[in-house]
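[audit] Reproducing an earlier prediction to check determinism. Same input, same settings, fresh worker. If the tokens differ from the archived copy the diff job will pick it up downstream; this log only records the rerun itself.
[audit] input (414 residues):
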Amino acid sequence: MIKKREIAVRILTALTLVGLLVAPLWGQIGPGTGNIKLGPLEVHPYLGLTETYSSNVYLNYRGLPSKSDYITTATPGILLVLPLQRHSLKAEYRADANWFSTFSETNYTNQRVGGALDLDFPMGLTFHLSDYFSDAEIPRKGPEIQGLSGPTDPFRALPYQANDLNARLKYRFVDRWALEGRYNYYDYDYKNNFDDTGSYYRNLYGGAIYYRFTPKIDALLDYNYSEVKYKTSSFNDNKNQAAYLGLSFDPTSKLRGYFKLGYAQKDYDQDLPARNNSFSTFSTLIDLVYQLSKYNEFKFTGYRAPEEDVDTNAPLVNTYAILGYRHVLSWNEKVSLTANIGYGTKKFEAPTLDSDGTIKTRDDKQWWAGVGIGYAMQSWLTFGLNYTYINNDSNFVSYNYQENKVWFNAVLAF
């Protein structure tokens, strides 16, 4: 295994020196736009190779001292697309294999497989159905402790399987109006019985009404209702509602994406002492990209909604905003520069146990910033160099940390 890792690192280093730098922070490893075909079937294979340095791989969990390491990540995948006149059928597989140089016990691999059916009928009717299955794990939060394993290991990895099924039906009529209905089933299941208190499934039902008042802008009214059921801890079962007013921008316009403002509410089926068993909050969902010019692009993401903590199942309100900028060099359009900055908070609605033995209500404030440079040597070959800094200021010992991260990557995508 060590020899294979050393070879991978040398290949990546050579590619980075030749290509000079990175796929931008804007992009993610994934399929390209190549023209490989088997009859009508489009084949889009891709492979990413990333070398990361982290100054704090375990994020000071439970007050651990900062421990640095190098992580090599291989990301193979393939996307198959079958066009069917106005319709399409897709299937995809992706894996992320992570190898740690020093803390090899933290090595882990995530896999995802699934597909989607998109139907586009005459007279404005569209239908989307997708189902993706994940076999993955939340990686270790600390090094191994001799003599401790399974449920007694406080830093253990949490392997899980998840299934994400989505269906959406949309009908546009009389040019300006559209109706949409949607359904999501999400099943999250830990593999080990002793982690099962965090296993749950969710049924979500929703819909939206759109009114197009310009050729590229829709006003919308959006509503979602969901029920969350835990498999072994029914006292955490809850119901959620969220309603939004907003705007949706056409993908071909200079400003594209959506902007939604509204209200969200979480209600637990059973009351627990000290927990806020029913609460509501202002909520927002924003994902906007503004193409200022051919060479300059801004991206803004904003989010505020109730959630549940993956470690403790405790309810919280998660809020964050991220502003990003991308510049393509006019004298060499193969080179792009990126920068982003963000700030977020996590306000918990129930007290939990910290690693120092105190019971209190967690409150996190996090800010981060990053820069990157990308070089597209070919349409199918890109290189990247990126840096990010994260500061998570928490009143809990287990979640108070700072991290510097630098990573290089090379991506082949057809």
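[audit] rerun output stored. Observation attached for the diff report: The helical segments are 2-19.
[audit] end
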